[in-house]
Amino acid sequence: MNRNHNNAFCLHTGAVMLMLLCLLTAGAARAEDQNGGWAGDWLTNYQSARAMGLGGSFTGLADEPLGMVWNPAGMTQLSRNELFLETSRYFEGTSINTLSFALPGTRYPTLGLSILALRSDDFQRTNDINQDLGTFTEGETAYVLSASHNLHPMVSVGGNLRFVHQSIDEFSASGMGLDLGVLVHPTETVRVGLSAANLGGPSLELRETSETYPEQLRGGVAVDLMEGRAMVTAEV
Asked: CA 79, CA 94: separation in Å to the nearest integer?
């Protein structure tokens, strides 16, 4: 195949993937509108810088310490100890700060820890007649303990234990949940991942109403092209 054919193939593949991603994004937006927002949406749909660069399709790859949030089985691809730090700034002074560490294993499981902290700016507190009573903040912190292992040269499995703490003004609550993931390498250039997040929680009750993080299933694929110089990823 000559260079022109290669360029045409890449452009065609890119256009198809862009169209699929637009359709998936539109469907997700409609689902969120209908549900009015999910409990723990900030964590369930969090994207690191690299995941964002891949259009959010990271379940079939997840080859960095923070990848345990998408698919804990992906950490088996790491070959050395890694420390990951990242901060994201959002609207109105809101931020998400992350710290993630992974310790690869061969005979023993690969172990990891990620801490993700959502922090808001100050909100004004008022009473029933709109008198100023000062300010308050809202924050959520997730501690993710992860372990993964190779069952076979082509099959890896992993699991997370999530502990989430939320506080709004003087109210606070904590809860725990479980994630499971599988990563399969059917060929040297193809990776297929499947993960199930928020199994059995976390469930938080700040006052009288309990909110449970919704269970989420993700499937993804990552394909290396042009001898590793390009990659195509997709996710549902």
From this structure: 34
Quick one: which H or E segment has residue 185?
A: strand 171-187
Would you say how long the chain is, in residues? 236
Contacts (Cβ under 8 Å, ≥6 apart) of 94: 118, 119, 120, 121
- The answer to whether the CB of 215 falls within 8 A of the CB of 198 is yes
**Residue 170 in this model has a pLDDT that exceeds 90:** no
- 75-97 b/e (C-beta count within 10 Å ≥ 16 → b): bbbbeeebebeeeeeeeeeeebe
Residue 149: is it exposed, middle or buried by C-beta count within 10 angstroms (0-12/13-18/19+)?
middle
Give per-residue pLDDT as tens, 60-74.
999 999 999 999 999
Neighbouring C-alpha atoms within 13 Å toward the C-beta of 235:
24
pLDDT at residue 12, as a whole number = 45
d(CA 155, CA 139): 37
Report the alpha-carbon distance of residue 134 to residue 88 in Å, rounded: 27
- Which helix or strand (DSSP H or E) is residue 168 part of? strand 155-168
On whether the CB atoms of residues 45 and 58 are closer than 8 A, the answer is no
pTM: 0.77
Distances from the Cα of 140 to the Cαs of 97, 129, 167, 188, in angstroms? 11, 30, 6, 39
Answer yes or no: are the C-beta atoms of 120 and 104 closer than 8 Å: no
Q: Is the CA virtual torsion 110, 192, 142, 79 positive or negative? A: positive
